Predict the structure.
Amino acid sequence: MATILDATIGGELANSYAELADADAYFEDDPHRRELWLQHEPVQRERALRFATRYIDRLRLRGEVLSLGQALHFPTSETVDRQGEAYIPAAIQYAECEWALSLLENPPQSRIDRAALRSQGVEAIGRPGLEERYAKGPALPVVPIPPEAYAFLRPWLGGGVAATRG
């Protein structure tokens, strides 16, 4: 059974910052990218949105979560309007859309979890004619941030208070 896309703001089961309709609307005005986005089935687009959200939430993001019961990083104490309503910044939703399209158009070429290997102390892997070496230190994200998504995420990166969600 497929996981249902849940973009409930501050929800305990939320797994996306944007609904599929939001992502469809985001790509609507760009004829080329609209076609790229819509060529994938809705279930594929929803899956990509969920994975993009996971990748975003793995980053060190600015702001403290509004509630320890929420599943995702946003909303934060910084994303509450004058009426006291929590919201998801448009830039976060746009970054999710961009990252989702990147996942659909550029699927990962490797299933090697380099971050896990580095955390276990592996310095190199290889086979005859091919070797991959890893630098010591903290592992980098397994999936690089697409430039289009990074442009939207940049103001929200760097800092943040990590919260344990149980």
About this structure: Confidence is low (pLDDT under 50) at residues 160-166. Residues 20-108+143-156 form one domain.
